[in-house]
Write a structure and sequence with these properties.
Blueprint lengths: L22 H23 L2 H8 L3 H5 L5 H21 L9 H16 L2 H13 L4 H28 L8 H22 L2 H6 L2 H16 L11
Helix pairs in contact: 1-2, 1-4, 1-6, 4-5, 4-7, 5-8, 5-10, 7-8
Length: 228
Amino acid sequence: MPAKDLPSTTPSSKVGRPRRGTEAERRDILFAAATKVFLKEGYGMASIDKVAAEAGASTRTLYQHFENKADLLAAVVGRLVERDMEAIFVQAELAQLEVDQALIRIGTTLLERFQDNQSRALFQLIAMEAHRFPELAKKVRASTKQRIESVVESYLRTQCEQGRLAIENPAATALLLLHMMVGDIKERTLFGTCDEAYSFDATAHVKRVVDLFLNGCDPAKTQRKSTV
């Protein structure tokens, strides 16, 4: 769920005081405050009031942009995803890359996010709280996971149309490919130590996944009709 235009106030001793700076700077301040509160308090104890106090904004202003704290946390995580998408699709024009290089770029970008300390902590928070707050998991999935899946699906579909891949169901294949790419580090993030997450060789892992994937989807190598 994309966030609406964000409030125009900056942290100060006077709550609600108009902010200075660009819209991007104001957005950075608000989301930094929200992230700090969620990671410090946990989702259950966090509140719009606490985020407003941390950001130096009025509670009323935040409620004008976010219905509740689930919306706010989904927006925080969604913002990280949007940055990932920009890293993949703006800095690297996938259409100009070979398929293997494009898929490696997608996978390494996503895995690098899980190796980021703050992003990993947010993922752990959501995973731990999802069973108690099902609306949180639903909102985060809608604003993040489905967004990534749809982008990868679109890329695979385009490659099929150009005859570079042979896939009957790009949507299901995108889901499987993403699980292959990020499933291991997600498990490390949830159950392993920080050292395990940091020592994970994302590039080598993604290259192995892409090689396996392309060996099954290359039309020149496909010996039987794909059921994926």
